[in-house]
């Protein structure tokens, strides 16, 4: 996803000299090449994320379009006050891109996990929150963020995510995408855990349990109409996210249903008011925390009160 982000940003910066890239000792060789080619559009602030966000707000006031890029945990938590007061309260045209969604920093533990960012950031007025699931969707979301005039937070994975879309994929703020049809339940997910969800729905299908999978890449605004349409068509809804179930996608879906008076059972799968446990590969950490495909399948079976033959 990092390469997809840099590719999309490079194309935007080449076409618009007002777009600037702000790093925090978090770049790659591609960023170094971009800095050599466009030195007046690239800045590295070192490990000073709060200053990075504050200066981005100042740049936006001067007509620039800053893309702030570093670890999501340090942006969402360490820089929260600056995002709130300097960027969003002033409604500045700043794009905040956090890499390492969920447990992507699988060997570094909870201090580097980004598993509460939705909860905090979607509560800030004026801030759009996007959560792409694949590299091509990253490119589409970065283009959508650039076209939107106002603050945007984009949450990126970084573990070689599987591709489920074509290069022509289009993302829109407030949109979603249905990947599979189903007759038994609807599953809403977001971000790079989509690969586990798609594997889980294949496991379910082997036992004649068919799930409609919806990729909710726009967390705020949420695609309310898609949620309500699914609630009309299915008796059971499931949300899956690599995030605390408090304040995340599951909460957002439940809020829509409650506000509209729709009484459909919802199973929220994620971290249950807990930090992720364990270290290892991301696949291993997901297994330890019940977020791998097999665990998702079993949780859904329990929810439907049915077991595989």
Summarize this structure briefly:
By secondary structure, the protein is an alpha/beta fold. Helices cover 40% and strands 18% of the residues.
Please characterize this protein's 3D structure.
- This protein is α/β, with parallel strands linked by helices and 309 residues long.
- It has 2 domains: 2-156, 3-Layer(aba) Sandwich (Rossmann fold), CATH 3.40.50.970; 179-304, Rossmann fold (3-Layer(aba) Sandwich).
- Helices cover 40% and strands 18% of the residues.
- The protein is built from 12 helices and 12 strands.
- The chain has helices spanning 2-15, 29-37, 49-61, 72-78, 80-88, 117-121, 135-147, 194-206, 224-233, 249-259, 282-288, 293-304; strands at 19-23, 42-44, 65-71, 95-99, 128-130, 152-156, 177-178, 185-189, 211-215, 218-220, 237-244, 266-271.
- The strands form 2 sheets. A 7-stranded mixed sheet has the order 2-1-3-4-6-5-10, with helices on both faces. Strands 7-9-8-11-12 form a 5-stranded mixed sheet, with helices on both faces.
- Strand 11 (237-244), helix 10 (249-259) and strand 12 (266-271) form a beta-alpha-beta unit.
- The longest helix is centred in the N-terminal third of the chain and has 14 residues, at 2-15.
- The model has no long low-confidence stretch (mean pLDDT 94).
